[in-house]
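Handout, page 2. Input:
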Amino acid sequence: MATINNGAVIGEVDKHIVRATVIQASTVYYDTPATLDKAERLLAEAASNGSQIVVFPEAFIGGYPHGANFSISIGIRPDKGSEDFRKYHASAIDVPGPEVDRLAAMAGKYKVHLVVGAIERDGYTLYCSILFFDSEGNYIGKHRKLMPTSIERVIWGFGDGSTIPVFDTPIGKIGGVICWENKMPLLRTAMYAKGVQIYCAPTADDRPVWQATATHIALEGGCFVLSSNQFCRRKDYPAAPEYNFEGSKKELTPDSVVCAGGSVIISPLGEVLAGPNYEGEGLITADLDLKDIVRAKFEFDSVGHYSRPEVLSLTVNDHPTKPVTFKSKTAKTEEKTN
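Output:
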């Protein structure tokens, strides 16, 4: 497992310095217990290097279904597509649930703030989520992807404004936005308005152009961007016919790369502190100087002195949206009162 860092000295102590690691590694597809075991090994390695916050890729728990199309055709519903979804649903996790408890225990054991991408199961609907844990071993909240991209919209539900949190922690204000949601300027603005300092961006986009997106967010938001992606090969997924890469334009060998990573850490000044890594699985580590946030915002504060609220403003609905609301509890309370 390779480690890429910015040359910082292990053991250096400064209250303004936060050591951060982004994990670049593949899911053990269709095997969530094995994926959790792998997560713990990687977390232990990061903690041994002094990391205080560790970020895992999008959909690390449950898996990102690269190349799968779930046999989707308008008006046609093959049995294979339904069975593929059943297996994917079985690999997802409930929040809260035993897997969340285990992740919380890991964060507490290794004394790190943990941010991990997971496929969340809520009844029969799946969400692409980020789960957040503090260094005391507490689950502190989640973000559900607001806008799944392309065919993702078929397999994942849509999050709402109640799950776009920024958590105030001893190492800074931490929040997260997933993959192409990061291209949504109003969502980014909401995150900046909440004061995010350590902006986690788990992704499945391994194209070089993703680096421009991550750099722009760091500069626009005056925040550190920690972008984590999987590095996976065809052999990291089950063999055909259990798992087919229907969307592939070329024949894949077991060693063919299906996601090349590109995980990176960028400062509020737009400097690449560590990465990007396109070589394989690895830990990408850098020391974040939180004083750089103030230095960056001296010139540009997008929700402060550089905003024009009398011309441009944003309203965010941060209430949960529910398809069914039961009034029976209210009715019973009124009956007792009368």
